Amino acid sequence: MLLSFNACNKGEKKQEKKPVKKTVVHQPVVDSARIADSLARIAERQRALEEAAAAEAAKAAQKYFLIGGSFQSMENAEKFQKELQQQGYESEVIVRKTGPNTDFYKVSYKAFADRDKAFKALRDAKKQPNNETVWLLVKR
Which of 31, 56, 62, 64 satisfies CB 3.0 to 4.6 Å to 111 for a cystine? Predict the structure, then answer.
């Protein structure tokens, strides 16, 4: 004799196991020292940019130049400019595209935005020995 038992739950459905989705929430680690350092670097960069812009604007406003020499060759002008820079002057070679003496390269050793200061510096410079040939270029 063979006995078999078959258990069947007709009213119940077999429940399937659903995969559980795990969500990982990352909480940012706030390092206030790092944030403060970053903000300080950003502020420093901003100050540097503002100072550079102000210096550029001031340089653009300069229109009076004490000229220490005028040369027909750029090579000679650059050589004289380097000598002046080695002496501590903020020298530059000025090339004029229009107006008188466009074929000369002028080498300045001081620049001014203020007319009165420029003429006073010219008078003072001419009083110095071996400086009698200094002249003032006015950019328009």
Answer: 62
Closest CA to 99 of 59, 133, 139: 139
The answer to whether 91 touches 66, Cβ cutoff 8 Å, is no
Q: Note the pLDDT tens digit of each residue in 1-40.
A: 555 555 555 555 666 777 777 887 777 777 778 888 888 8
Within 10 Å of residue 134's Cβ, how many Cβ atoms?
A: 19
Whole-number Å distance between alpha carbons of 55 and 47: 12
Q: Are 88 and 99 in contact (CB under 8 A)?
A: no
Q: Retrieve residue 18's tokens.
A: 């659903």
Domain residue extents for the chain: 31-61, 62-138
What secondary structure letter does DSSP report for 99? S
3-state DSSP call for residue 67? strand
Residues 82 and 30 sit within 8 Å (Cβ to Cβ): no
* Whole-model pTM over 0.85: no
CATH class of 62-138: alpha beta
